[in-house]
Amino acid sequence: MILLDFHNKIIEDVLLERFAVTDGKYDPLDPPTVIADFDGVTFSLGTPTEARNIVHVSMSMKGYSDLKQYGVDDVMKRVYGANLVNAESGYDVTVRVDVQNKPADVAKFVREVALMKRHALAAPFYKAIADVEAKKPAAANLIEIRYRDDEAIYIKQETDRIIVIFTIMFKDQDDVVFAKVFLQEYQDARKTMSNAPSVLFSQKEPPMELKSVKNLKVQQGQGFVSFVLFASHITGNKKEKSIDNIQTFRNYLHYHIKCSKAYMHTRMRNRVKSFLQVLNRAKSDPESTEKKTITGKSFKRADDPQSSAEDEFNI
Question: What is the pTM of this model?
Answer without folding.
Answer: 0.80
